[in-house]
Amino acid sequence: xxxxxxxxxxxxxxxxxxxxxxxxxxxxxxxxxxxxxxxxxxxxxxxxxxxxxxxxxxxxxxxxxxxxxxxxxxxxx
Amino acid sequence: xxxxxxxxxxxxxxxxxxxxxxxxxxxxxxxxxxxxxxxxxxxxxxxxxxxxxxxxxxxxxxxxxxxxxxxxxxxxxxxxxxxxxxxxxxxxxxxxxxxxxxxxxxxxxxxxxxxxxxxxxxxxxxxxxxxxxxxxxxxxxxxxxxxxxxxxxxxxxxxxxxxxxxxxxxxxxxxxxxxxxxxxxxxxxxxxxxxxxxxxxxxxxxxxxxxxxxxxxxxxxxxxxxxxxxxxxxxxxxxxxxxxxxxxxxxxxxxxxxxxxxxxxxxxxxxxxxxxxxxxxxxxxxxxxxxxxxxxxxxxxxxxxxxxxxxxxxxxxxxxxxxxxxxxxxxxxxxxxxxxxxxxxxxxxxxxxxxxxxxxxxxxxxxxxxxxxxxxxxxxxxxxxxxxxxxxxxxxxxxxxxxxxxxxxxxxxxxxxxxxxxxxxxxxxxxxxxxxxxxxxxxxxxxxxxxxxxxxxxxxxxxxxxxxxxxxxxxxxxxxxxxxxxxxxxxxxxxxxxxxxxxxxxxxxxxxxxxxxxxxxxxxxxxxxxxxxxxxxxxxxxxxxxxxxxxxxxxxxxxxxxxxxxxxxxxxxxxxxxxxxxxxxxxxxxxxxxxxxxxxxxxxxxxxxxxxxxxxxxxxxxxxxxxxxxxxxxxxxxxxxxxxxxxxxxxxxxxxxxxxxxxxxxxxxxxxxxxxxxxxxxxxxxxxxxxxxxxxxxxxxxxxxxxxxxxxxxxxxxxxxxxxx
Lengths: 77, 725
Known about the structure:
The complex is a heterodimer of chains A (77) and B (725).
Chain A: H1 19-39, H2 43-52, H3 58-69
Helix pairs in contact in A: 1-3, 2-3
Chain B: H1 3-16, E1 19-24, H2 27-38, E2 44-48, E3 51-58, E4 61-67, E5 73-77, E6 89-93, H3 104-117, E7 120-124, H4 129-142, E8 151-152, H5 160-168, H6 176-208, H7 220-235, E9 241-251, E10 254-260, H8 268-278, E11 282-295, H9 303-314, H10 318-330, H11 350-358, H12 364-373, H13 404-419, E12 425-436, E13 439-450, E14 476-488, H14 497-506, H15 515-524, H16 537-549, H17 557-571, H18 576-596, H19 598-617, E15 618-621, E16 629-634, E17 641-645, E18 656-658, E19 664-671, E20 678-683, E21 688-692, H20 702-724
Parallel strand pairs in B: 1-4, 1-7, 7-8
Antiparallel strand pairs in B: 2-3, 3-4, 5-6, 9-10, 9-14, 10-13, 11-12, 11-14, 12-13, 15-16, 16-17, 17-18, 19-20, 20-21
Helix pairs in contact in B: 2-5, 4-6, 6-17, 6-18, 6-19, 7-16, 9-10, 9-13, 9-14, 10-13, 11-12, 14-15, 16-19
């Protein structure tokens, strides 16, 4: 079985991420619109900002870091 | 036979019989009962080795009061083997199951001996499911008599008056439906707890060869699920930005704090525009509204109410509050604390209690005011408990000097009780609307017009009073400075011991007596890292395993079902045997599924354990090489522990730090204010303290270090002196 590209957990069905990180990515994507409207920022800037905040959840921060290291402009496909 | 006939028979029998064995739940309770029933006239405590009993005359009768130590008997499987499934159990002396319970053996032996000479048996344990079961098992197994012949003293406090009353009006039979329900609860808890814990532990053993107990249970599983789900929510949380606006107004030289009417603004540009537009502008007071509100006294304490309030004011964990309250109860200072009731029934003589409290230096004047005012109707809460009233003081003075912690809990209970008779407090909240163009600000004030009950409940009742500034409708206020503040939404906080207890109560999980122990066991098993209930990797591994393979063990449904069945047993709708048959059938289904998946379950748990142990050893990054991690290492030569860099094996970093040799060490999320090194927490049995990893060199801790050295030297000297003698 493949392992999550962020942690060593088993991947969820039809995904390259485990359940936790897939869920974190879903949340990250869902919240982007709020940030875009609030600050008029793009995806990269959004990831940077979310990554810096103390309130950000651990799995969200990990997936944000992963996306930033990949130079993601719109999140994992 | 009707009640009158039965009572007549009992009276007749009592006239003939003369030696009565009374069994209490604890030694202190036995002493209180003996003192109350003997009127201290012919009372003698007879010691038999480590244990004792009381014997005295009461009328024609000789009364013998012996005690249990909580449960004297425990369940044990009838078949041999540390495996699963094991479904059949029997009650055996507790010391045969719990090796540490050595104190039980002489007690059972003594009760057995006393029972041989007794003609009549009276159970005087706490009047609840556990107390009733303790008494029943003692009568059945230790006294070797038919429990149907035993009688019951029912009381809610250990005052002489209550105990006397309980003896004179004792129930002719034990409360069998309650006992049956208690037995069923123990048996079902044993079935699920023992079998699933063994299944989990043996899965680890067959995967990695380690014997590491990983436990779960009927209530512990759902408690773990609460903590794990909250942790997941926190880990998955994405904050959202918003902005708030506050202004400092100037009204004839008086500074006024104004809050913008919209609590949050979701777009930065808009917030900045409002801030810019209002800066330095004149605003006008549009209106001033004042509202009066009355607040009734808080309701009487039940156990969870007392535990929550005690945590709020003193930071005491619920389990600690229960222990303290239990001690106060055994000293007859308060009523029985394991109650769900928020009511003080008419049978409680509140006038007498208030008279008693009048004799206390610190409560005398408050009690006198209630007595003088003639207000003897306490406020009542909604929850009821047929067995016991809400927790209240008895009015009896402490027979000994209370510890500071006991004093605090006692003070809380007494003041809450007196407050129940207070008048409602009256508060006036005011709000001024200050307008500038289309923008509205509020200025708020709060005043207590009448203290009422709050006066009795000091220092626990507080109000953040704030006077409304001296402004009137039409006044102008200059917005001297307008501040736009960046904020983000936050996740729900983690559970603390008090909020977890409330969650368990809300879901009707566990009993009022066991909830605090369950919250503690989640921590002591290593499923959470600290008192903030941050889930550990082991906790995660267990949660994930149970969620995937035995989701029933995390669900509240199983327990809800069982609670219904318990009620059914008490109401006579079902019986213990049927409940056990159902429970065993469901458990076997779970265990069969478990057996099939044992290898996968073992792998998940072993992975979690490995991560957990590794994390427990890691303190933080190495400040010297900035690459490795500081791990706790035990020297193979001396056995002493120290911190060493993980980069040591590669020969790149030889940094080490000494560590205190006793206590559990965990890293803290802060650096030393003196030297900037990582802080750690050391929790030993006696105390919890904080220091930095550089404590031996830290300039800020030199005095502590010297003091420690001095203490060590003097200790060594004393030891040497002792030896030479």
